[in-house]
Automatic annotation (TrEMBL):
Transmembrane segments: none annotated. Signal peptide: none annotated. It catalyses: a 3'-end 3'-phospho-ribonucleotide-RNA + a 5'-end dephospho-ribonucleoside-RNA + GTP = a ribonucleotidyl-ribonucleotide-RNA + GMP + diphosphate. Gene3D superfamilies: tRNA-splicing ligase RtcB (3.90.1860.10). PANTHER family: RNA-SPLICING LIGASE RTCB. Its cofactor is Mn(2+). This is 3'-phosphate/5'-hydroxy nucleic acid ligase. Keywords: GTP-binding, Ligase, Manganese, Metal-binding, Nucleotide-binding, RNA repair. It comes from the Bacteria. Its EC number is 6.5.1.8. InterPro entries: RtcB, RtcB-like, RtcB-like_sf. It comes from Paenibacillus terricola.
């Protein structure tokens, strides 16, 4: 087997001490069936990113995290990358102009959706009318916006066929963030919209029994946030297709911060994946690298090791350096940064050398802060098959100084 067993945790790739300590803490709390670390793992809030915890009858709002249903949609277009390269600069300008990155909205497009008539909004009504109205208004205002952090809209060239692909990466925005913080508050006996003082990165997971009223409410709210994230990613892909004058003939769409009820070893369990892509046999997923590296479309294998992984794999390359280490600290009053190991010139030179037309992005998202994707894929060679290799030609993200309280 390609994984190690360390204190009961199944670990793919090189163990990160901080993430491993978090995984061990998760394994020691609740009705845990198995705890796992994918090869792209690193520290997260309570449950490590790249971490998977399998529960019997329980769900963890802190495990799913604040960016509920963060994930990717990728589509193959009817164009060749060569068709658009002569006008790539103009097209990337148009993508950056028309699609909303960061916390606000660059246009007045009101994105209506039948999602807002979903009966699961009643979950928030049961918490309170004020909470329901505030969250629904926030969700309506942000549907179809991308956010900041590591969230992106990219254009890719498939390495073997030259076909043009589009992919995006974001989740349920402020709606998901406030849903997560609200249920963490309720679990601690606080008001849904209250502040949450004293929480730390390494605190034990917050657990809810699925059979409890609060657990059922969170599960329904999480699924609603998942449908919201899908609707947002669908909308943004449609925008880019319109800008390109293209059509899609194949699509891949998946969450990687979510909890699923699944059957494993003959019983139903709850699989909480934070920064981990589901990879059941035949299931297709998108895994993104950095802006200076490949991304891939993968398919889960029917193998013993994939079963041991509870049909989970990496969601990206995994960070080697924190945002503060890379970019330094931002003083939001003066809008000046101090410190940081990666310069703007280093980032731009690396991206230019890789042949990428970049819009936005800070040095905390530069290629230097991530592992090479192939390294983490190699650690999961027995669990997934690479179907398509994609090389970025255009990357669009929020600007370096864009403040967004809802980013990853």
């Amino acid at each position: 087997m390609a994984y190690q067993l360390i204190n009961g945790v199944r670990v793919w790739g090189k163990p990160d001490d901080g993430a491993l300590a978090q995984a061990i803490t998760c394994a020691e709390h609740g009705n845990v069936v198995q705890t796992l670390l994918m090869a792209d793992h690193h520290k997260g809030y309570s449950q490590p990113i790249g971490g998977v915890v399998v529960y019997d009858g329980q769900i963890s709002p802190s495990g799913v995290g604040y960016d509920i249903a963060c994930g990717n949609k990728a589509v193959r277009t009817n164009l060749l990358a060569a068709d658009i390269k002569p006008k790539l600069v103009r097209l990337m300008d148009e993508i950056a102009r028309r699609i909303s990155f960061g916390v606000g909205r660059v246009n007045n497009d009101k994105v209506d959706h039948d999602l807002f008539d979903d009966p699961d909004w009643d979950v928030y009504k049961s918490v309170g009318k004020q909470e329901h109205d505030k969250l629904k208004a926030l969700a309506q205002s942000q549907l179809g916006t991308v956010g900041s952090g590591n969230h992106f809209v990219d254009l890719f060239e498939e390495t073997t066929t030259g076909r043009l692909w589009i992919a995006n990466h974001f989740g349920s925005r402020g709606f998901g963030h406030k849903t997560a913080s609200g249920f963490l508050n309720l679990a601690a006996g606080r008001e849904f919209l209250g502040k949450a003082p004293g929480e730390t990165m390494d605190q034990p997971p917050v657990l809810l029994d699925l059979s409890s009223e609060l657990g059922d409410m969170y599960y329904r709210a999480m699924k609603l946030a998942g449908r919201y994230a899908y609707a947002g990613r669908d909308y943004v892909i449609r925008q880019v297709l319109s800008i390109l004058g293209a059509e899609a003939d194949y699509e891949v769409h998946n969450h990687h911060n979510y909890a699923w009820k699944e059957m494993h070893n003959g019983r139903e369990v709850v699989v909480v994946r934070k920064g981990a892509t589901p990879s059941a046999p035949g299931q297709v997923g998108f895994i993104g690298g950095s802006m200076g590296d490949i991304s891939v479309i993968v398919k889960g294998k029917d193998s013993v090791e994939n079963r041991d992984a509870y049909y989970s794999t990496v969601h990206g390359a995994g960070r080697l350096m924190s945002r503060t280490q890379a970019a330094g600290r931002m003083n939001w009053k003066t809008r000046a940064r101090s410190g940081g190991q990666i310069s703007q010139k280093q980032m731009m030179d690396a991206v230019r050398d890789y042949g990428v037309e970049l819009r936005g992005a800070g040095t905390d998202e530069s290629p230097f802060v991530y592992r090479k994707l192939q390294e983490v894929l190699d650690a999961h060679a027995e669990t997934i098959e690479v179907m398509h290799v994609l090389k970025p030609i255009g990357v669009c993200m929020a600007g370096a100084d864009e403040f967004d309280p809802y980013k990853d």
